[in-house]
Amino acid sequence: MSQLLAVNTGYGVILAADRRVEVRQGHHTHEEERVKLYPMGTLAAIATSGAAVCIPMTEQLSKFIGDKPLSFEHAAPYVVEQMQREYDKFIDMAGDWFLKNPKAYKLSYLLIGGVNAGGEPSFEFYASEAHGEAYHKLPTQDVFTAPRRMGLETRLMAANARGAPLEEILEIIKDGLFLVAKKEIAVGGVFDLVIINSGGITRHKIG
Known about the structure:
By secondary structure, this protein is α+β, with helices and mostly antiparallel strands. It has helices at residues 54-65, 72-93, 95-100, 150-161, 166-183; strands at residues 4-9, 12-18, 20-25, 28-33, 37-39, 44-50, 108-115, 121-128, 136-138, 143-146, 191-197, 200-206. The chain has a single domain, classed as 4-Layer Sandwich (Glutamine Phosphoribosylpyrophosphate, subunit 1, domain 1).
């Protein structure tokens, strides 16, 4: 299971995702390091969790969109539509394999963030909880983690409420993510982070 994070701040929306992926080959599994957070144009980005097949899908979609300045209200529905189409296509093509492997991972999550036409930060979280099930949007607030990390969320909400500087917010995120990675083997120790505002996307690698 990946670790995803999103925060709406006065400096833009911040998204983060770890890089650890569990790969199945026959009856064996091994871990790889894969980027799960990709830009969707110059004003939005997406991070995925769950089904690893969504990683190359988002990478290809990122390349297709290129440097188009899609604001969040245009990028989010377009990205969800494209991901749904590609994910459904994959499920259809691999139908027999899934029948033979009923324990295969069925959950797929999309975290999409960006700035709207007025420059305000925003993000949305979508889930597909069974093969062939449509992505549906889940409720979120200005601070969100998946899986939920209430201690980290509380610290970020407090920092946001008092208008903490960006450097402090990033340090809280870094410390919180490293703590999660230290405690849970399923979460990778390397994270990708982006800050998105009307000036574009700033990328960071943590770890």
